[in-house]
């Protein structure tokens, strides 16, 4: 009996991971689009090096297709670890903050739009006091706007608060 291996109870194989299959399909689609677009570029040899404008898209597209195949193989074998259940409300707070920022950036300006996004993200991470998070986010966002728009002369959308302190800024 010393040479026999113990009998393992028959475990049912895991089903293919649907999320991993979706990721594999997305990777394959992105890689395919890059390869298709690279094929449409003019075939310029790139001079002595042979590197042209299509070289990087071809390499990235091929890498994405290889990653898609690898992900597909692991998904079909069920080799992905079990993931914890997602908590949807924090994710929705972050998406809502990003959506608000995108919609309000031109009308309200960088400071207010980004300050509200900051508060929504803080709420997603457990900070429940929006009455404090919004003004703190606006102040931090205004400081960032100052560094970029005034200090570095980069164009960020100016709104109510920015025009209050710097009336001539566009």
UniProtKB/TrEMBL annotation:
Keywords: Membrane, Transmembrane, Transmembrane helix. The chain crosses the membrane at residues 20-39, 59-76, 88-112, 132-152. InterPro entries: DUF1468. Residues 22-157 form the DUF1468 domain. This is Tripartite tricarboxylate transporter TctB family protein. It comes from Pseudogemmobacter faecipullorum.
């Amino acid at each position: 009996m010393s040479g026999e291996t113990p009998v393992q109870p028959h475990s049912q194989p895991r089903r293919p991971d649907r999320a991993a299959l979706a990721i594999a399909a997305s990777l394959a689609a992105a890689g395919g689009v890059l390869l298709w677009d690279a094929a449409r570029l003019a075939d310029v040899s790139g001079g002595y090096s042979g590197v042209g404008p299509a070289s990087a898209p071809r390499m990235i597209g091929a890498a994405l297709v290889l990653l898609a195949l690898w992900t597909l193989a692991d998904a079909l074998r069920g080799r992905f670890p079990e993931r914890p259940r997602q908590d949807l409300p924090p994710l929705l707070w972050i998406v809502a903050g990003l959506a608000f920022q995108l919609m309000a950036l031109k009308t309200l300006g960088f400071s207010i739009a980004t300050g509200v996004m900051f508060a929504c993200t803080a709420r997603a991470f457990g900070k429940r006091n929006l009455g404090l998070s919004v003004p703190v986010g606006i102040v931090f966002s205004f400081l960032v706007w100052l560094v970029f728009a005034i200090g570095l002369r980069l164009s960020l959308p100016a709104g109510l608060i920015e025009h209050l302190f710097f009336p001539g800024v566009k």
